[in-house]
Design a protein that fits this description.
The protein is α+β, with helices and mostly antiparallel strands. Helix content is 38%, strand content 23%. Strands 1-2 form a two-stranded antiparallel ribbon. The mean pLDDT is 79.
């Protein structure tokens, strides 16, 4: 097992330089991916046509979240007349290696639920573990 404490001071300096370059490279890649996503999403039909399956980032795992809002119309007898799709938003959460995706999605859902509680009522929850 590798232990940083076993390195000489010179090796630690070199390690820090390499680590710093790697972190900058990762940040640059993330920035490029976010910019590309933003450009792609300027097209209102981006999600309406077939795209080859690809990751948004270089992570092996990523969570894509789709939030779909529909409005329904009923008549006086409470018969459903129509349902219209009014919003379709997509969100992305990269899941680095070694990170539990459940924690990432729970973090998103907790923040989402907290922010939305004043303007909507949660009526159903369904997840993979149920």
């Amino acid at each position: 097992m590798f232990n940083l404490d076993d390195l000489t001071e010179e090796e630690k300096l070199l390690w820090d330089k390499i680590n710093s370059k790697m972190e900058k490279s990762i940040e640059d890649i993330k920035k490029e991916n976010i910019e590309k996503m933003a450009k792609d999403l300027e097209d209102p039909n981006y999600f309406n046509h077939y795209k080859e399956v690809r990751h948004v980032t270089d992570y092996q795992r990523e969570i894509l979240i789709k939030i779909n809002a529909e409005i329904s119309t009923t008549n006086d007898q409470n018969k459903l007349l129509e349902i219209d799709n009014i919003v379709e938003n997509f969100y992305h959460i990269p899941v680095p290696s070694g990170v539990d995706y459940v924690e990432k999605i729970d973090e998103f859902l907790d923040a989402f639920d907290k922010e939305i509680q004043d303007c909507a009522i949660k009526i159903n929850t369904k997840n993979e573990s149920e």
